[in-house]
């Protein structure tokens, strides 16, 4: 069965960003687009009133779908518009059962850290396919001025936890980097020791080294495994210090893509994400790919 790329679309600015990214990815993968629009659930309005409203909404959705398909065609990509009634997240997850990747644009959180759209969160938690969520204001091929001193430019960053190479996010990150001519940075995050009752700087450094050594050993072993399947891919490993969420968000300021597994640093539970994953998704400044892991 030929896979496709599913993109959530409603004509808004954030969905236009998602469509632009999806078109470029479809060109790269040579896969068709499935452009999904949801008309929502039936309300409690009287049927005579709701019927007219639903008809108007469906007509507008058809207009938007046609416009999106034409935009894909102009980019050399085959697109199909899908209009479904129902909860937006549920519709997207259902239509993505045979997808290679799902693409959504994230609404801004207006300066309130740790918030993101409920649709993005639900799709990321329940999709059987990897989900790419684009931050507000991001456009393909465009990045704001990068902070000085940062060094993740031109790289796909994947966060690795104790699962190591068994984390399904790792091969997805490597494949994306290889297909797009990027480098891969495998990172692990260890907490700082500033909260510990240290008596000296020497003791502080000794404890920090004990924390960092096994983390470095883990990500180096992951890199070694990946090089067997991706011999031409440039891979580097880095141990970052600090709060995991902060470290990943900092990396996203210069990275091309941040990749995480749904059960990485804390993982997902139902519709709720662990604090690290939630913060990284909400505040990342580059596209984030969330790769599903097997449900228990």
From TrEMBL:
Residues 1-135, 155-292 form the UspA domain. Pfam families: Usp (PF00582). The lineage of its organism: Bacteria, Bacillati, Actinomycetota, Actinomycetes, Micrococcales. This is Universal stress protein. CDD domains: USP-like. InterPro entries: Rossmann-like_a/b/a_fold, Universal_stress_UspA, UspA. It comes from the Bacteria. It comes from Kocuria marina subsp. indica. SUPFAM superfamilies: Adenine nucleotide alpha hydrolases-like (SSF52402).
